[in-house]
Amino acid sequence: MRWWPWRHPLPLKLDFGTASLEEWLPRLGRVLEGTGANATVVLAVLRGLLLDILAAEDDTHAERVHTAWRAFLDATLG
Are 76 and 42 in contact (CB under 8 A)? Predict the structure, then answer.
């Protein structure tokens, strides 16, 4: 059985969405500084792709998601 952060019985993070924003948005902002990329958009795409992997029944989607992430970064960062 796959591990689902929103179904896990242990209270690792009570609010996964808010916690990930608070932890990652400032860091992404610093990494992307000077690139013209929007940290909120990058984080939204990253979280969406993470959900795509978590929703997959097997690991066959990992390569497709990796390809999508690289394509997004290439388009965003040039």
Answer: yes
Rounded to whole angstroms, how far apart are CA atoms 28 and 40? Answer: 8
The amino acid sitting at 64 is R
31/25 Cα distance (integer angstroms): 10
Cα–Cα dist 71/63, whole Å: 12
State pLDDT tens for residues 16-61: 677 778 888 999 999 999 999 999 999 999 989 988 888 877 777 8
CB 43 within 8 A of CB 24: yes
pTM: 0.71
